[in-house]
Amino acid sequence: MRPVVTEKAVMKIEAQNTLTFEVSKIKSKENIKKEFEEIFKAKIQKIRTLVKGNKKYAYIQLKKEFPAIDIATKLGLM
Length: 78
Fold this sequence. Notes:
Elements: E1 2-3, H1 7-16, E2 18-23, H2 29-40, E3 44-52, E4 55-62, H3 68-75
Antiparallel strand pairs: 1-2, 2-4, 3-4
């Protein structure tokens, strides 16, 4: 699981409370959710995935009480 730092990803953090990660193509949404919640101790509202080329991206929207910008700051994205 690796964070994606693009202009679009940063806009999603601010506007939609959503973090973007590049994940392994074999991971399911349940596996991604479990791993994310163990690492960051934050609850997930919704996960969307996108397979583009040879990469899989996970868009992780957090619940309102867990600001995505806090996690992005811990990761050094902001």
